[in-house]
Amino acid sequence: MNTILEHDCYRDVILAFVKETHCTQRQIAQESGIHTSYFSRVMKLGADFSNEQLYAIGKVLGLYNWRLDYFLLLGDLSRSGLHSHKTYIKNKIDECRRMHSKVIDKLQGVCAPLSEENIATYYSSTLTARVHMLLTIPKFRFHVMMLQKKLRISEKLLGQELKKLEQLKIISREGGEIKVLKRSIHLEESHPASIDNHRNWRIETLHKLSHGEASHADFHLSATFSGNEKTKIQIKEILKQAIVESQKKVRDSQDLDDVFHIGIDLY
């Protein structure tokens, strides 16, 4: 959930998850082991969740590392009845926001949190993301067999990928019609699966380069430079801003007809 830093109340985080995933509060309560009537009471400001309950809810929401810490801080703030303690918690929340405001938090429309199990499933292969993104293009959504030709895969493998995306609740299929429920997925850079995801996409890039499948619009660059840590950090910020600006172009793009990939390394 990339927009979590925008929220000052844990209830708003839960409601945002419900809106993004089409999940229900009842489902969250049941998966968290909390009685549904008490869950409803808390959401109506009649009570507060304990730290243990919020932890369980956070795991259901797919929160981990600092995002889970932030979620728990919002719980501390809600429960606090002492002014000086509230101020202390607010300062910790502000510090967390300063530390973790990243590129992803500047992008628009990037959401769709996944559970730990679903993260492992989605990022096990780059093919899943490619099929997902191609389905955001009408011609592939309405003529699914075009995907098979585009990706050069068997009908069986395509069927497996579509079934996977449906099970992940990223797409739905009714009467042969495909609807994309989540147009964009983001994996937190600190997540353990991130390394495998980067590796898999680098392998895809090497495959494309070695097979000479170049387009005049493609761009590949490798450079080594001398400098210092300060210079490296400045370049990192330039690249991060370039991603933000690129996403604006993607968002405004019309007449979609293909899927592309960007991979950036600085080390």
From TrEMBL:
Superkingdom per UniProt: Bacteria
Coiled coil: none
GO molecular function, one term: DNA binding
Domain DUF4423: 113-267
Protein name: DUF4423 domain-containing protein
Lineage, highest ranks first: Bacteria, Pseudomonadati, Bdellovibrionota, Oligoflexia, Oligoflexales
